[in-house]
Amino acid sequence: MVLDESAVAGPTPVPAAGPGPVPGPVPGPVVEPVTEPVPEPVPEPVPEPAGAARAPLDAAGQDLLFRAARTSWGWTGTDVTDETLRALYDLLKMGPTSANSSPARFMFLRTSWAKERLRSALSEGNIEKTLAAPVVCIVAHDPKFYEELPRLYPGVDARGWFAGNEALAEATAFRNGTLQGGYLIMAARALGLDCGPMSGFDNDKVDREFLVAQGWRSNFLVALGHADHGKTPGRAPRLSFDEACRLL
Ligand SMILES: Cc1cc2nc3c(=O)[nH]c(=O)nc-3n(C[C@H](O)[C@H](O)[C@H](O)COP(=O)(O)O)c2cc1C
User: Fold this and answer.
1) Residue nearest to atom 10 of ligand 1 (CA)
2) 5, 106, 123, 233: which has the fewest C-beta neighbours closer than 10 Å?
3) Beta strands 194-198 and 104-109: pairing type?
4) Does the CB atom of residue 73 touch ligand 1 within 6 A?
5) Which residues are CB-neighbours of 14 under 8 A, at least 6 positions away?
6) CA–CA distance, 216 with 219 (Å, rounded to integer)
7) pTM across the whole model
8) ∠ CA 20-101-6 to the nearest 5 degrees?
């Protein structure tokens, strides 16, 4: 089946960015935030004039999101408020998904009681660092995400692409739900939080314990908080451009 998203009139196209930034020297590591960042209301962005070059994120912003950001293995005592979790969702929801399907669902465990219910599903090596985090997010997806498509992708019968085709619906939910989990990690970093993503757990147990009522399926976990980098091991290498990329 061909999913023709082009059949729908989308919003006004945004001009492509100009030539990318030339990366400058990498400054020192970003200083750890000591207090919970207080999200402020952000005004609606003003649309750019046609042909305007978009300013790249500066080197400090790139550090915050990528170069200085580390997976967290330990946590300071700083809490994460529900307001921050709302700000986190308001950022990550803007990341693109196919047909705007937005299949990811997020279960935030913020109380000791809720986090304890995870214990028996976690791999041995993941228990301590997960339960010590201020918040653990179960990144899940709704297998019936397509029921929202008349609202999320109006103007075409996108629901009909998936209803009755369980394999296509699950592949679409998993692909886009995973992307949205990635957006969650980057949005959390943008808000000054640290993340400990984790797939070392029993998905079926987590689904039975937390997600039965909603009918959602777990994908992976993300522990959220402020990192205690005393527990972070040295950075492992990454593949070089020449190893991982081809130019055609
Ligand atoms: C989807 C996913 C699953 C992961 N699962 C685990 C896990 O079960 N246990 C663990 O200790 N680390 C886990 N990690 C952490 C990775 O090992 C870590 O992000 C990677 O080594 C890069 O570390 P860095 O961000 O500090 O460079 C996972 C990361 C991702 C993105």
Assistant:
1) 198
2) 233
3) unpaired
4) no
5) 47, 48
6) 10
7) 0.85
8) 65
190 ligand 1 Cβ < 6 A: no
Which residue has 């300071």 as its token pair? 76
CA-181 nearest atom, ligand 1:
1
Q: Cα Rg for the chain, rounded, in angstroms?
A: 20
